[in-house]
């Protein structure tokens, strides 16, 4: 699984960082980005999906392979 | 059919008024009814205004900063004309600003409200919640609004600004004056602010911070730069006032609504007392179901919205709380489900004006509820009919009589 934050859509609600700090981080302005290259280990897949379904701006993209 | 009282609303589809007693008491059935048959309502009151009530309609407006301007975000009886307010800056940047200026004014403040900056304030917030609860020890009856919720955001912002806590009463009086003078226009209220005692007080604090800089929001604002120049003291003062107006009764409302809900729903209260790890999810559900803040926009250019044609200069009420109750987006929208996992609610807005204080508000709400539940896991609203709700664009309980069960 691969996650990506669309920086154009992200408005810094910080839901992803609250719910899954293992996958997302926020910059000094509070906008989010995925850690590393965005690869999510299997044990964190549910957390990644939870972050996605709680992002009010629909800014989190998930590619499941 | 009974005759409606003079001035009261008969049909919210054609004559809505967000200060009508029916709306103040319980707006949710009104929005549900409109969603089924409108979905964009209109009123001739306030010089003409529109009201979308679906999530889709509210989001469309929030995202469209070309056709909708934030120049005037509080609907009042005196509608400003196109040249009455400075665009794109507005009276209280960034909340009243449009692009491209908005981004600059917002960027300046974002670092002070980022999740990591806010996390540092948690111990102070927890302590002040405990102090407030200590003061209620031994009582069987208390008011969750006036003895608890009301004080938390006020004390936190005073702490952030680096003002002495003993001065909280000055601000309480000031905010009461600003928020309760409902018949005044936003501009009149700001004028009152400009002349009041608060100005002299803030100026003295600014002078003191200039002489003795320290690690607080006041010193941060005084050293911040916009376009390569330090902010003028008026700009710093204006920003402080905005933060107080935007941050206090909103957060107080969210804390109060949550305690009110728990005091009326013993099954939710018991579950949360037994499973405190549920709090982050439950709290988002309270924010969804009882979102306190409705914003407003003005139409900048003629535009279609869900089948209606809106004209330049029209007012529009932007009810994020109604978007949060739309069954097209939230299954069982009118039910409070404290373990609702998927929750893309819009309590803090959508798009570029996303609440700048959302990380702060969430921290305060989480800490306030966890401290309350730890101290008083067993309580109920003693007299549900005595609960009163604020009128206007910020909705929250202003009296919440509580009985502690022992
Ligand atoms: C539960 C509490 C709160 C709620 C529900 C809330 C809600 C909102 C909403 C819906 C907006 C969007 C405005 C728009 O679209 O026009 C907003 C903006 C804003 N809020 Fe909050 N707010 C809360 C607490 C706070 C706090 C604690 C602060 C700061 C101390 C704050 C400061 C601001 C500011 C400065 C803006 C303007 C941002 C911009 O225009 O870029 N709010 N708030
Ligand atoms: S939840 Fe969405 S909008 Fe919020 S920080 Fe994460 S990606 Fe950005």
In words, what does this structure look like?
The complex is a heterodimer of chains A (65) and B (406). Chain A is 20% helix and 22% strand. Chain A is an alpha+beta fold and 65 residues long. Chain A has one domain: Alpha-Beta Plaits. Chain A has a two-stranded antiparallel sheet. Chain A is globular, with a radius of gyration of 10 Å. The model of chain A has no long low-confidence stretch (mean pLDDT 97). Chain B has 406 residues and is an alpha+beta fold. Chain B has a single domain, classed as Orthogonal Bundle (Cytochrome p450), CATH 1.10.630.10. In chain B, 47% of the residues lie in helices and 11% in strands. In chain B, the strands form 5 sheets. In chain B, strands 1-2-10-7-3 form a 5-stranded mixed β-sheet. A 3-stranded antiparallel β-sheet of chain B has the order 4-14-11. Classes of the chains: A alpha+beta (65), B alpha+beta (406). At the A-B interface, loops of A face α18 of B. The structure holds protoporphyrin IX containing FE and iron/sulfur cluster. Protoporphyrin IX containing FE binds next to α9, α14 and α18 of chain B. Protoporphyrin IX containing FE (HEM) binds next to α9, α14 and α18 of chain B.
Features:
heterodimer, A: 65 residues, alpha+beta, Alpha-Beta Plaits, two-stranded antiparallel sheet, two-stranded antiparallel ribbon, 2 helices, B: 406 residues, Cytochrome p450, 3-stranded antiparallel β-sheet, 18 helices, 14 strands, 47% helix, binds protoporphyrin IX containing FE
Brief characterization of the structure:
Chain A is 20% helix and 22% strand. Chain A is α+β, with helices and mostly antiparallel strands and 65 residues long.
């Amino acid at each position: 699984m691969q996650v990506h934050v669309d920086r154009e859509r992200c408005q810094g609600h910080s839901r992803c960082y609250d719910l899954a700090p293992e996958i997302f981080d926020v910059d000094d302005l509070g906008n989010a980005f995925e850690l590393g290259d965005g690869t999510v280990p299997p044990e964190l897949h549910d957390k990644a999906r939870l972050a996605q379904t709680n992002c009010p701006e629909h800014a989190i993209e998930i590619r499941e392979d | 059919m009974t005759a409606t009282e003079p001035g009261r609303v008969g049909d919210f589809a054609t004559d809505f008024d967000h200060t009508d007693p029916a709306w103040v008491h319980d707006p949710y059935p009104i929005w549900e009814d409109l969603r089924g048959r409108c979905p964009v309502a209109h009123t001739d009151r306030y010089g003409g205004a529109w009201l979308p009530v679906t999530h889709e309609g509210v989001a469309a407006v929030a995202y469209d900063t070309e056709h909708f301007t934030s120049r005037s975000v509080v609907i009042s009886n005196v509608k400003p004309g196109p040249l009455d307010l400075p665009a794109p800056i507005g009276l209280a940047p960034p909340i009243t600003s449009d692009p491209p200026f908005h981004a600059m004014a917002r960027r300046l403040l974002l670092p002070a409200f980022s999740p990591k900056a806010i996390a540092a304030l948690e111990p102070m917030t927890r302590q002040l919640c405990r102090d407030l609860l200590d003061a209620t020890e031994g009582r069987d009856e208390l008011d969750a609004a006036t003895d608890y919720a009301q004080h938390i955001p006020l004390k936190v912002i005073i702490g952030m600004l680096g003002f002495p806590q003993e001065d909280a009463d000055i601000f309480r009086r000031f905010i009461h004056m600003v928020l309760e003078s409902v018949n005044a226009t936003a501009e009149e209220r700001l004028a009152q602010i400009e002349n009041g005692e608060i100005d002299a007080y803030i100026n003295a604090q600014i002078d003191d911070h200039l002489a003795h800089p320290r690690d607080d929001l006041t010193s941060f604002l005084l050293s911040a730069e916009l376009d390569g120049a330090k902010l003028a003291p008026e700009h710093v003062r204006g920003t402080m006032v905005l933060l107080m107006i935007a941050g206090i009764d909103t957060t107080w409302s969210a804390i109060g609504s949550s305690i009110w809900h728990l005091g009326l729903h013993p099954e939710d209260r018991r579950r949360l007392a037994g499973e405190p790890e549920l709090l982050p999810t439950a709290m988002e559900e309270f924010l969804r179901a009882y979102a306190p803040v409705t914003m407003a926009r003005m139409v900048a250019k003629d535009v279609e919205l869900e089948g209606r044609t809106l004209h330049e200069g029209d007012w529009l009420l932007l009810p994020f709380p109604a978007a949060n109750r739309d069954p097209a987006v939230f299954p069982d929208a009118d039910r409070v489900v404290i373990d609702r996992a998927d929750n893309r609610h819009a309590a803090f807005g959508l798009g570029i004006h996303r609440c700048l204080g959302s990380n702060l508000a969430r921290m305060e709400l989480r800490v306030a509820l966890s401290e309350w539940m730890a101290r008083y896991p067993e309580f109920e609203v003693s007299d549900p009919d005595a609960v009163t709700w604020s009128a206007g664009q910020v909705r929250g309980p202003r009296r919440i009589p509580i009985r502690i069960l022992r």
